[in-house]
């Protein structure tokens, strides 16, 4: 394989979004001063996202409303199958089967 092919081969693995013009990329801070955010799953139908903090708190973020108080009824850290590996991914999580693996 010619040397020029070896140099261009890694370029195939660069995501095309990184090749966009800098003015086309928009970064926006939605919430700051979070204490160890652990997981940020998006809720369906533009309902915001859930913010799981490393200490086990679960909060909801919504556009125009910001971050909620901690959601009550969430198991404390360590009560899950594997501590610090719990990810909430459904607004009906308490009615769903526990997702652990």
UniProtKB/TrEMBL annotation:
Its EC number is 1.1.5.-. It is an enzyme of class 1 (oxidoreductase). This is Glucose sorbosone dehydrogenase. One of its GO terms (molecular function) is oxidoreductase activity. InterPro entries: 6-blade_b-propeller_TolB-like, Glc/Sorbosone_DH, Quinoprot_gluc/sorb_DH_b-prop. Residues 34-77 form the Glucose/Sorbosone dehydrogenase domain. Pfam families: GSDH. Keywords: Oxidoreductase, Signal. Residues 1-20 form the signal peptide.
